[in-house]
Design goal:
The protein is α+β, with helices and mostly antiparallel strands. It is built from 9 helices and 8 strands. The two termini are about 70 Å apart. It comes from Stutzerimonas nitrititolerans.
Length: about 450
């Protein structure tokens, strides 16, 4: 009795270099159930192919679909694509050696609402996905049972009937074949169990390495944070000392201003006293020496003029001193205002001189290092700054950011509500096209028809 292999279900994963992983469908179900994780595909959207393979290692059906993986390497729990139903209801595809296959992809999907979860294979000469599938299945790295070639039929005229007592001998041969087949199946199950055990051990080792790397990164981050906190504390202390110095300078300026005002008042009083005394002496001299000769009067007048000249010189000196003190007051005031205005800028320049970099995170642009001379521009409009770094306009970046945060169709239905059909997320603002990448296929087609009309 010969055991014939049946049609086998398998799943193959594609990356930029071609087929990177293949497994039987039970292993794929273990990944979907969360029993097995794939850390090498963590936080990625992988392209995969569900295939049906017959006993001659020929592909009979293929479904090209996407599968998202979480940050820990586990499959997306919300993934739910009826692969078997799509394979049964799909249309005809190319001939991979056993006749035309049943093919389901984005451009040929029997269920319209599943179209966004499928992808189209490439048919270029250097990267033909159908040829890669055919050749990989022919290698039989999955260890599938292969159907042996059918022996040629013997002509009826050459057939001979054996003795009746030997008719029941093939029963023992059938039993032996059954035992061999059972033994072969048991060996296959043991190999599969051993393979799963090895994969689980490898996954556990990778998990330990990942935990160790995370612990190192956390320790490094804590050390950097502590160092930055210390630098911030030192800067705050310097800022406090600078503020105290500014307060002392302001107090000295106020004291000098008060002292100058008092000194000017004293000089004014002295000048008034001198003027009163001068008038009194002149009147007394005129009354006392009215009878004296003209020479004595002129001598007295000359003496008084000399005294007045001296007073004028003193008054001019007082005015000059007043002007100098006023200029000093204005200079000190300007120095105080300039020092108060540039204290914050000076602190930023000191931080930049010490190697501190100013960084900000924006989706699509990543972590941006902001130069000191660009800080004012960034504070004025952060979105415009991030859009300029992504080489797109501010409006396009703003609409892409809305799509990035909520990747769904923005078109309006007839009822006035938003379509909200889930879309593939565009990670780069430069590849984002308004009206195309933020709309589902139905509304993109409608917009094209309107444009064409």
């Amino acid at each position: 009795m010969q055991i014939k292999p049946q049609t086998v279900e398998a799943v193959l994963f594609f990356n930029d270099g071609g087929i990177c992983k293949e497994m039987l469908y039970p292993e794929f179900e273990a990944i979907l159930d969360g029993v097995v994780n794939l850390p090498e595909y963590a936080d990625q959207q992988m392209r995969a192919v569900y295939v049906l393979v017959n006993g001659r290692l020929q592909v009979r059906a293929a479904v090209f679909f996407y599968l998202d993986f979480n940050e820990d390497g586990s499959a997306d729990s919300g993934w739910n694509i009826p692969l078997r139903s799509l394979a049964e209801r799909s249309g005809r595809g190319p001939d991979l050696g056993g006749g035309a296959i049943r093919l389901a992809c984005r451009s040929q999907c029997p269920v319209s609402w599943q179209q966004m979860h499928l992808w189209d294979p490439e048919l270029t000469s250097g990267n033909n996905h159908f040829a890669l599938l055919r050749d990989r299945i022919k290698r039989n790295q999955l260890g599938l049972l292969v159907e042996e070639e059918v022996p040629q039929a013997v002509p009826t005229d050459r057939l001979q009937v054996v003795a009746e007592e030997t008719w029941y001998a093939p029963a023992q041969a059938a039993k032996v074949a059954a035992v061999k087949a059972e033994k072969l199946q048991q060996e296959q199950r043991l190999k599969a169990a051993q393979l799963i055990k090895q994969q689980r051990a490898r996954i556990a080792s990778l998990e330990q390495l990942r935990e160790a790397d995370i612990a190192k990164l956390r320790a490094l981050a804590a050390e950097q944070q502590e160092r930055l906190q210390q630098e911030i504390h030192e800067l705050q202390e310097r800022l406090r000392q600078q503020e105290e110095l500014n307060a002392d300078l302001q107090a000295q300026l106020i004291g000098q201003t008060d002292s100058f005002r008092k000194h000017r008042e004293e000089l004014s009083q002295q000048l008034r006293m001198l003027e009163r005394n001068g008038r009194a002496e002149a009147e007394a001299a005129r009354a006392a020496f009215a009878s004296e000769t003209r020479e004595q009067v002129e001598a007295a007048v000359a003496e008084l003029k000399e005294q007045i000249a001296i007073r004028d010189v003193e008054l001019a000196y007082r005015n000059e001193l007043d002007t100098q003190l006023q200029e000093e007051i204005e200079q000190l005031t300007q120095a105080r205002d300039k020092l108060a205005a540039n204290s914050a800028e000076r602190v930023l320049e000191q931080l930049s001189g010490q190697g501190v970099q100013f960084m900000a995170y924006h989706p699509g642009a990543g972590h941006l290092t902001i130069a000191l001379h660009d800080i004012a521009t960034y504070q004025k409009n952060p979105l415009a700054y991030a859009a300029a770094r992504c080489a797109v306009s501010e409006e396009q970046y703003r609409q892409w950011l809305q799509h990035y945060q909520e990747p769904s169709c923005v078109a309006k239905l007839a009822s006035g509500e938003r379509c909200a059909m889930p879309l593939d997320k565009i990670d780069s603002p430069g590849r984002f096209v308004v009206g195309e990448t933020n709309c589902c296929a139905r509304h993109r087609a409608r917009d094209r028809l309107r444009t064409g009309s």
